[in-house]
Amino acid sequence: MLVFAASDKGGTGRSVTSANLAYQRALTGDHVAYVDFDFGSPTAAAVFDVPGVVRGTEERGLHSYLEGEVNEPARIDVWRQTEHPLLRARPNQSGRLVLFPGDAGGGEFATGEDALERCIDLLLRLNGEFDVIVVDLSAGRSYAVDMVLAATAHPRMRNVPFRWLVFHRWTRQHVIAAAGLVHKEHGIIKGGVERGHDEEALRGAIRFVRAAVPDPESPLWSHGTPAQAAWMQACDEALRRLAADHGIGDSVVLGVVPLEPILQWREQLITEEDVLSTQIANKETLEALEEIALRLTDDSYWGRP
Amino acid sequence: MGDSGPGESAPRAVLACGEVRTCLLPTRQALDIRAAAQFLGLRADERVLLSERPNLYARSPDILTGVDCPLPTANGARVRAVGTVAARAALTEGRVLQTSAHFRLPADGPDQRQPWGHYLVRPGVVEPLGKLSHETVAQGVLGGGRHGELDVGLIADALLTRLLRHPLLDQRPPLRSRPTRLRWVALPAGPYDGPSIERFTLAEDELRTVRLRVPEGTPSAEIAGFCDDLALHDWLLTTVVRVLDGLTLGSQEPPARGRAGAVQDRPAVVRVVRPAVDHLLHLWMPRARVVKDLAPLWEVLEERPGFTRQWQALVQRIRDQLTLHAIGSLYREVELTP
Fold first, then answer.
1. CB-based contact (8 Å) between A288 and chain B?
2. Do A130 and B173 touch (CB under 8 A)?
3. What string of pLDDT tens digits covers the 338 residues of chain B?
């Protein structure tokens, strides 16, 4: 299954959350590929704590692959190459977790049929090898978004299931922007239909993930004054209405990731260790990530009973 | 390593090199022999080799790629070489696809580049400009060349990419598997010696390297045939081992902090092993396509590491697992949904 991670803006936690989802799936035994199509700013290597490639690989990354400069993109076995001490001890019964990094300095680029064919070749090969393929896309209606919309509409990909996750923060601007990215004139759905997607099917394959959402009930905020608490409740309520009005209400939300202090400081994977032993991360964050990871392939969350 | 076909006039080869890519054909159903012929019809002017005994096997005609570039060398020495690399694709039981590229090198070649006609009558021969240290090149090839040097793996991969775009493929592989690469070199054996395997290594996850000695005069297509066979069976072992890795045995109790549903949803034994039973277990047939002169090489592999021994243990394990589950009829009707 292909999972495309999109967002309208940067700073939505798209990369770090989707990397965490990939990690969670690998823990449950799936073989997982994480494909960094965030051409402007490849960050996945930093999240997985892979040295040397922290800003994408020098010359064999996905950018070089799509441009036809190398035949096979570099792949990084995360369990083996990470410097994260906990990840290095690959958990028993976990599946493979392989990162396909971008190139250093590989920005967005204009390209044609060749890159599209190569993109399809890559996605098909990964589909034969991995259970879940998370593709992190540059923010906005980027070239990367267009390319995978075209790729998934191609006849060669007709039997490859895919799903979209659109990440946004829980603020007015982010809600409106995320809805725009999907539903507006130049949005994913219109763009997909132009490339041959069936509108209903594409719409049904898109779910939203609210990231960095402050939970008014959380102990983080419990020291606030009653006035603050009431204000937060009211904001939350207003945002829910706004989201529903823009077609991204609760029924199309796959999950909510609470505001997590460590993720505000540093993009990283949240491990069980962080919650249980060192207790630097919140249990709710890890549970939210685990839950969303499971729902990725749970059809009941995708309108298919 | 002699020459075959119109290459007769070329000097004796001192080194043959090649690389094989092996992968599961990404289709729900295996291709039947007619579909295989259509799939592998890479050239209008030559037929696909089809064979039904002892197993279903189809092989494309050779296609040639002209090359003019430095050879990989272990010591970094620059040896330019010109000629053609032969590549072909094969399909075993309509299920496992292999592309294989190879060439052979004479000890020396003309000092200057010749017109293409000279090279075209020597298919699969790459001639060095000047003298060649074949040992250095052999090590260079196995170690993997640098960017810009002759890379037979790229040629094999390009053919694989081309075939994987074929409209006959529905891109619904029945199980997840990883392609493997097997890189080989063959040097001449001593005058009275038979063929031997000097080294067989599992370098990275998907890369295997083989260093062979073969009697002088062995055609490189025959060496490639042996290496294809080795790569096929190595891939089968690798793939079935990984299928069994996916089994969670025992009580499947959830970890201390309940991971909602994750562990309990681990695929049932039947669902995991069934694709292997349906698509892989009948493919084991070492030496089916190896010429008699090279067959002794398999005896070495059977001795150590013991390919067939490991295979039989895996097959037995799969059968035992299925038997156990047949006892608990609860699992008998599990649907196949990869």
1. no
2. no
3. 544 444 445 568 899 999 999 999 999 999 999 999 999 999 999 999 999 999 999 999 999 999 999 999 999 899 999 999 999 999 999 999 999 999 999 988 999 999 999 999 999 999 999 888 899 999 999 998 888 999 999 999 999 999 999 999 999 999 999 999 999 999 999 999 999 999 999 977 789 999 999 999 999 999 999 999 999 999 999 999 999 987 765 434 444 444 444 333 345 788 889 999 999 999 999 999 999 999 999 999 999 889 999 999 999 999 998 888 777 655 445 545 55
Whether residues B53 and B154 fall in one domain: yes
* Residue burial B221-249, b: 16+ Cβ < 10 Å; e: rest: bbbbbbbbbbbbbbbbbbbbebbeebbbe
Residue pair B211/B199 in contact (Cβ under 8 Å)? The answer is yes
CB A201 within 8 A of CB A187: no
Q: Do B171 and A72 touch (CB under 8 A)?
A: no
> Rounded distance, CA B13 to CA B99, Å?
23
| Cβ–Cβ under 8 Å, residues B279 and B175 | yes
Give the structural domain span for B34.
5-224
Which residues form the domain of A233? 2-300
Q: What angle do the packed helices A172-183 and A226-245 form, to 10 degrees?
A: 10
Does residue A126 lie within any of the structural domains? yes
Q: What is the pTM for the complete model shown?
A: 0.91
Same domain? For B107 and B197 the reply is yes
What phi, psi does B87 have (nearest 5°)?
A: -135, 150
> Chain B residues with CB-CB distance to A under 8 A?
23-24, 26, 154, 157-158, 161, 164-165, 167, 170-173, 176-179, 205, 246, 248, 257, 259-263, 265-266
Considering the domain boundaries, does residue A194 fall inside one? Answer: yes
CATH number for A157: 3.40.50.300
Question: Do A157 and B171 form a contact (C-beta atoms < 8 A)?
Answer: yes
For residues B262 and A153, give the distance between their C-alpha atoms in angstroms, rounded to a whole number.
Answer: 31
Q: How far apart are the first and last CA of chain A?
A: 18
Please say whether the beta carbons of B17 and B71 come within 8 A.
no
Q: Is residue A113 part of a domain?
A: yes
Do the Cβ atoms of A29 and B248 come within 8 Å?
Answer: yes
